[in-house]
Amino acid sequence: MGDRDQPEYVWLMVLTANRGLCVYCNAMRSTTLDHVDSIAEGGRNAVENLFPVCRRCNSAKGRLTVDDWFDEMEQANYCRRGHCVHLEAGCSTRGVVLDIPWWELSDRMEATRATIDDVDRTRWFSHHFARTILRTSTVDVIERKQAAVKKLSAYPVPPWTSEETEPERDVCSRRLCCPQPAKDEWPTFFYLDADTRRRAEKLAFESEINVIDLYGLAVWEFVVRAEREGREARERT
Question: Are 165 and 182 in contact (CB under 8 A)?
Fold first, then answer.
């Protein structure tokens, strides 16, 4: 495999971390994967060694470690402020100068790593996107990432945070996106006009629940209310 050949779901779960932005500059959209420890220096081509980055930062960092790259940029910033010690030789910036404190970059990398390593998130991406290997020379990564972002935007909260009704199966059963009926639940069908359905979907989104659960809740509340009103009517007679 090539240095960045990974299953499609790995590409997408990494590229959508950090709000879809490059973990280094935090300004450009992430469009490729960076090996924190470069392959050339013995780093692994594995998800725990990957970060979402823009091509500009990825090219600038090259084979350097993040620490060495940051040290180089700090020196470049020192030189830019009129304190260059390189004299005639000049100083190297590799085309990118991040004028930010180390703690800011370190905190962002740590938060992004926690997002990528989230087991529930990984499981959700592996269920919703292909597990076939994508070759970096042929895949349109940006287009696939945009499709993933659009899919995620349809949910009020990250779908992997909702209950998983059948965790033992290798398919998604999250209540928010792919609800599976519980053992004591029965599928029920009914008709809604277009306007009522749109209003129900909007309410479900705002309530952070699946629209099917909203329908079930509405029926349950109707049954409870009807039973209560029936009891009260019998008591009056």
Answer: yes
